[in-house]
From TrEMBL:
Annotated GO CC locations: plasma membrane
Descriptive protein name: Pleckstrin-like
InterPro entries hit by this protein: DEP_dom, PH-like_dom_sf, PH_domain, Pleckstrin, WH-like_DNA-bd_sf, WH_DNA-bd_sf
An example Gene Ontology biological process: actin cytoskeleton organization
UniProt keyword terms in alphabetical order: Acetylation, Phosphoprotein, Repeat
Naturally occurring in which organism (per UniProt): Carassius auratus (Goldfish)
Domain PH: 4-101, 244-349
Stored CDD domains: PH1_Pleckstrin_2, PH2_Pleckstrin_2
SMART domains registered for this protein in UniProt: DEP, PH
Domain DEP: start-end pairs: 136-221
UniProt keyword tRNA-binding present: no
Keyword Signal annotated: no
Pfam families tied to this protein: DEP (PF00610), PH (PF00169)
Amino acid sequence: MEPTTIREGYLVKKGTMLNSWKVVWVVLADDAIEFYKKKTDNSPKGMVPLKGATLTSPCQDFTKRMLVFKVRSTKNQDHFFQATHLEERELWVKDIKRAITCLQGGKKFARKSTRRSIRLPQNVNLSELYVLMRDQDKGVKELKVEKDKRLFSHCFTGNTVIDWLISEGKARNRPEGLMLATGLLNEGFLLPAGDVSKEAAEKRAECVFLDQTEALYYFADSGFFCEGYSSDEDEVVKEEFRGAIVKQGCLVKQGHRRKNWKVRKFILRDDPAFIHYYDPTKGEDDPLGSIHLRGSVVTAVEYVPDAKRHEADGNLFEIITSDEIHYYLQAATADERKDWIKAIQSVSKTGK
């Protein structure tokens, strides 16, 4: 019987021989993880058998890389994968864990309807707690903080988080609040901003979260940005980074010069209406480029005029900006293409 495909998509993977990180097309079957150099390849570049394998998430072996999870095979070979955003990592981890469990029990893969709760004080589920913290009315308030000639936007202090946890009855005292906040940080729901909180997070202590006014943090899916500013000019550069994130993930983009196709991470923001794209193997400090979406048109297309058939086939869409610049992109699936088009259309009409 042929293995059943459970999930597939782009992830960043660390090389098994070299330390380089590269984008690969990953296919999760009910008995193994296969990864390909390109989505269109017929033969996998490698495979990780899931029988007897173990999964670690979050994996904190790399202090400068977030959203990494590790799969260790029965031969004690470690395979490191990195997702582009939190929700994506959670979906992969949940399905891989389920596949491993089913193999151990000799059962056929079947998704559970509910997530397994993490054992925490008062049996708090971190995902549910994060949703409450993000509530615009009753959650943790995002602020602008000036520090060391830098402006941090959409962030909050460590002691604010602990205060909120206690006031909402999620923690009985500050030590218990620290345990919860550290769990949120370790799972990637909260991220450190600024030197103080980043240094503490990199130490990997038992409680890496700091209950301090000097320690800054932000929500993983917020519109956080940090920029330096001049004391003479109260002006922040890169204004387009202010917007809240509407959608993010990997797409294949055609280059304007060489017309070649490469996987890029895209982040769509609502105000101003911008979509930035990055090299997914690197950080998000410096985008490779951006597309101003205000007044743009986005539509599905069946082919790209100057592309060979084998280079880009299926799930294509085109963005035409108000300056009549054409961008051709490819989604992994038809549903993903539909979701991106819908999100971009919404932002292009309402964003500034």
